[in-house]
């Protein structure tokens, strides 16, 4: 049996670097492995030569090394059943099995569960036939939302302003397969108007604890313009996420969702991440994710005072009952540094230069790799730079001060992260 206080983190993005950073602050943790990790995680532990989706390779390695806890970061290995395979080998795993991961892996499954459990959400229909999809689309007012049913790295969503745009999006997804097999089925939803909010709950399948509400910024351009991305920045706690609102979300959305999973004999141990729209009628579910958000993780974990080992381990063991989550009184903000051309056609390979560190900040690598000459850009979202302090203004100032200490050719980032809460941009 391996050492109890060792961790395998599956994934190689900013979320996984932030998890490793959080585990690394716990003096009990003796060893951290990342699969595959990035240039930043290599400074915290050992990167392994396995893709996050290499279920066979990761299972063989984990069976031999017996880490004390396995945390599966991204959605793809969860949907591929990695957590099931590892649990079958007697390992402690934080992350749902493939049946539970369908909450994210199939938007149609998620919608069916929401409707059957009477959880507030948008009116929708799912289709495998293009003509039927277009026919349903014309029955809904515009704007409306067209979603690829499967995993599309956070990009398989189109907000159609006209029925013609909706029909074009449906054709591109179903006939042209711009999102691959994820678009073989589409979900068409009414458009919900309001402000978005990300709420993460950690659950052991029966009990759950709710983390502070966060808001991210999906659009690449300032003022929430331009193409959708995997996320250009985030902040927490969001002022809209009042204690009363979070209580309502827990009682009307999270707990009924967990009960609906249990009815389907799904033992869900991991993160329930609800993407919500705060409408005039109250919070409604846009989507569920089966893992921590990215870049939300990069703002939530610096605020977390409860050791990550204790929280995730209790969920993995089915012993979350009685666990409380302690968070600091301050706030955090993260700014994503992107490669030129991101998100359409990112240009990679540039060397990255780092200046001085900034107090109360951290740089979480995502699309980076190390070679004999230093650290280079290897992905569209290169790193997430987080600052924290007693309030959101402090967190913003430290985050942007830390951003100014990093440079690579073509680097771009949004200068208005947090504008919904702060109502102003930074210079």
Can you tell me about this structure?
- This protein is of the alpha+beta class.
- The chain has 4 domains: 6-97, Rossmann fold; 129-184, Dna Ligase, domain 1 (2-Layer Sandwich); 195-316, D-amino Acid Aminotransferase, Chain A, domain 1 (2-Layer Sandwich); 332-422, Phosphoribosylglycinamide synthetase, C-terminal domain (Glycinamide Ribonucleotide Synthetase, Chain A, domain 4), CATH 3.90.600.
- It is built from 13 helices and 24 strands.
- It is globular and about 55 Å long.
Structural key phrases:
427 residues, 24 strands, Dna Ligase, domain 1, D-amino Acid Aminotransferase, Chain A, domain 1, five-stranded antiparallel beta sheet, alpha+beta, globular, 4 domains, 27% strand
Topology (SSEs and partners):
Layout: E1 6-11, H1 14-24, E2 31-36, E3 46-47, H2 55-65, E4 69-72, H3 75-79, H4 82-88, E5 93-94, H5 98-105, H6 107-116, E6 124-127, H7 130-139, E7 144-148, E8 157-160, H8 163-174, E9 186-190, E10 195-203, E11 208-210, E12 215-216, E13 219-221, E14 225-228, E15 233-236, H9 243-263, E16 270-279, E17 282-289, H10 296-300, H11 308-316, E18 331-338, E19 353-354, E20 361-365, E21 368-371, E22 374-377, E23 381-389, H12 392-403, E24 406-407, H13 419-422
Parallel strand pairs: 1-2, 1-4, 2-3, 4-5
Antiparallel strand pairs: 6-9, 7-8, 7-9, 10-11, 10-16, 12-15, 13-14, 15-18, 16-17, 18-23, 19-24, 20-23, 21-22
């Amino acid at each position: 049996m391996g050492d109890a206080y060792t961790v395998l983190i599956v994934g190689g993005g900013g979320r996984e670097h932030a998890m490793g950073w959080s585990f690394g602050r716990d003096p009990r943790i003796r060893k951290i492995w990342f699969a595959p990790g990035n240039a930043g995680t290599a400074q915290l532990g050992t990167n392994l030569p396995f893709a996050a989706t290499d279920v066979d390779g990761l299972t063989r390695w984990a069976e031999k090394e017996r880490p004390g806890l396995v945390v599966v970061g991204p959605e793809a290995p969860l949907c591929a059943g990695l957590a099931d395979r590892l649990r079958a080998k007697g390992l402690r795993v934080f992350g749902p099995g493939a049946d539970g991961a369908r909450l994210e892996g199939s938007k149609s499954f998620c919608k069916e569960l929401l409707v059957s459990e009477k959880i507030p959400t948008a009116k929708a229909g799912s289709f495998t036939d293009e003509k039927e999809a277009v026919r349903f689309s014309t029955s809904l007012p515009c704007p409306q939302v067209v979603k690829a049913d499967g995993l599309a790295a956070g990009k398989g969503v189109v907000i159609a302003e006209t029925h013609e745009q909706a029909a074009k999006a449906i054709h591109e997804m179903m006939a042209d397969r711009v999102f691959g097999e994820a678009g073989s089925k589409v979900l068409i939803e009414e458009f919900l108007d309001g402000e978005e909010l990300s709420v993460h709950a950690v659950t052991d399948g029966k009990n759950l604890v709710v983390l502070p509400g966060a808001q991210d910024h999906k659009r690449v351009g300032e003022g929430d313009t331009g193409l959708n991305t995997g996320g250009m920045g985030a902040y927490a706690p969001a002022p809209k996420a009042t204690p009363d609102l979070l209580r309502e979300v827990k009682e009307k959305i999270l707990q009924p969702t967990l009960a609906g999973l249990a009815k389907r004999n799904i033992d869900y141990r991991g993160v329930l991440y609800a993407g919500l729209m705060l409408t005039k009628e109250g919070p409604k579910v846009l989507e569920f994710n089966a893992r921590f958000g990215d870049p939300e993780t990069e703002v939530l974990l610096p605020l977390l005072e409860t050791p990550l080992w204790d929280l995730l381990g209790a969920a993995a063991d089915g012993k979350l009952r009685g666990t409380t989550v302690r968070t600091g009184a301050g706030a955090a903000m993260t700014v994503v540094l992107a490669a030129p051309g991101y998100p359409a056609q990112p240009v990679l390979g540039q060397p990255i230069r780092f200046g001085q560190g900034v107090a109360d900040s951290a740089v979480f690598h995502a699309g980076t790799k190390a070679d004999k000459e230093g650290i280079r850009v290897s992905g569209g979202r290169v790193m997430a730079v987080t600052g924290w302090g007693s309030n959101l203004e402090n967190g913003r100032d430290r985050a942007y001060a830390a951003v100014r200490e990093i440079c690579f050719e073509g680097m771009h980032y949004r200068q208005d992260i947090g504008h919904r809460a702060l109502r102003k941009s930074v210079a």
